[in-house]
Amino acid sequence: MVDTLFLDDWDALTRERDTRFAATLDRIFAYHPFYKDLLARAKLRRRDIKGVADLARLPVTTRRDFLANPHAFILTWPDGPTSDESSVWDVMYTNGSNGAPVPFASTSYDFMNILALNRNMLRLRGAREDDRILNLFPLTRHPHGAFARTMNAAAAFNLPVTAAMPGAPNARQPDIGNGLDKVLDIAQRTRPTILWGVPSYIRELVARADEKCVKLPWVRLVFASLDAFNEGMRADLTAGLRRLGAEDPQVSVSYGASEMQGSMVECVKGAGFHNPAPDQFCFEVVDPDTHRPLEDGEEGLLLLTHLDRRGTVMLRYASGDMGRLTRERCPHCGALTERIIGAPSHHDGFVKVSGRLIDPQALAELLLGTDEVADFQAIVEYEDMVGGVGGGKGRGKTGPRDRLRIRVAPTGTGLAGLSHMLAQRVEAVFEVTPVIEITSAQDPMLAGRGWRVRPLMDLRAKKRR
Questions:
Q1: How confident is the model at residue 390, as a pLDDT?
Q2: What is the pLDDT of residues 265-310, one digit of tens each?
């Protein structure tokens, strides 16, 4: 087995990639519903694409293409599920443009790769053979990679893992789903060394432990998976864990994607997000308008290509995120793979509210960067959708009025003046006056949304239909 994370040079890695990509391309040109048609229209034949060096010849695929017909991205096999390459192992879901779940299928062949991917994620993040993981991701209505792949990662690394099952109890199975205090009890009983989940929930768990004078001295790593995360949140988590007795807790942040069924991860703070399986994925950066390939270090549209998949397969796929890449060997861990430098941002992800553009990521950083907010969900809607008044500067004189409503789960009990203070902060930055609603982390809107958080949901399109 070739350890593709630590090869001698890029030539050796490229040879390994081209071997795997060739087998994938053979199947794409023969059996892939979407790409078989797209490549034919582009007048590209199989012999035109010899390896990853020819990726720039392929058209860019957008998230809109995928959402329009996700089933067309699954390889169709003429003889049905007769081998590990064609037998569907599982189907996970990602959010569509209107929040509806979109399937992402993995075959038995893919699942073995997913195990290898998640094992490498743990290697890069510094997991040890004596670690114990506490899975703090909630169950979601539709199967989602966050909960399941955490369990798979532990299996791939042969580590014990406990699913804390946070969230509201299931209506049919009231014993499934645990409140914050029960999760804290589980943490005390299992003595985890790794907390893995959404940082806002981990932050709330740490605050609750502090409030109850409960110690968690075993914790040495926090694996944080969330789009919006800043250094203030990292410092807050590590300081909180130190108060609970942890000697030198470290927070490892990831850049996750359903299209990977895993994440790009840090080996240490500031090292960038490593592609943990360079034999499975290839990343590029291109100009967002012309799709011209950019040099390392230039910011552009991030593209993902599956080099070795058999279920849902994508070529030069743009989820809409912007970032900068480097291919230099990591000076900290020695891995030879692509790394995203800095935090990726969303391309064309701005939402217009009452004539003002709001960057969802900037809104998340503003709210989660405060000591008072553990979690939140922002919603854009028309006032007549829920009643009441709202609005903001720049409102039109005719037609339905926009309303920015933010449901906030605070970190503590000192709520006096919190709504007013947060409303002022948001208005000062975005020139829109929000309606702030104080809730809790157990709010179904927060607890039931899974780990791939969308800070800002726009419900106006539903109203128009």
A1: 38
A2: 999 998 999 999 999 999 999 999 899 999 999 999 999 999 999 9
134 and 254 share a domain?
A: yes
Number of domains making up the chain: 3
Q: What are phi and psi of 161, to 5 degrees?
A: -140, 140
**Could you read off the pLDDT of 162-199 as tens digits, one per residue?**
999 998 777 788 888 899 999 999 999 999 999 999 88
The pair of structure tokens assigned to 203 is: 């932050």
Decide: 392 and 402 in contact? Cβ < 8 Å: yes
Give the tens place of pLDDT for each residue, 90-107. 999 886 554 567 899 999
Residues 197 and 249 in one domain: yes
Between the alpha carbon of residue 252 and those of residues 225, 239, 302, 366, the distances in Å are 9, 15, 22, 21
Residue 5 to residue 13: CA distance in whole angstroms: 9
Q: Cβ contacts of residue 245 below 8 Å, gap of 6+?
A: 215, 216, 217
DSSP β-ladder status, 161-163 and 133-135: parallel
Q: Final residue of a domain: which of 321, 346, 371?
A: 346
Last residue of a domain, one of 244, 265, 286: 265
**What DSSP line would sit under 138-156, residue for residue?**
PP-SS--HHHHHHHHHHHH
Residues 313 and 368 in one domain: no
Which is more confident, 70 or 357? 70
Which tokens in the block code for residue 83? 């081998």
Residue 432 lies in a domain: yes
Q: Classify residue 119: in a domain, yes or no.
A: no
State how beta strands 402-410 and 373-382 pair.
Answer: antiparallel
| pTM, full prediction | 0.80
Query: Which residue range is the domain that position 60 belongs to?
Result: 4-112+272-346
Where b means 16+ CB within 10 Å and e means fewer, 233-255 reads bbebbbebbeebebeebbbbbbb
Residue 447: what pLDDT?
60
30 and 66 in a single domain? The answer is: yes
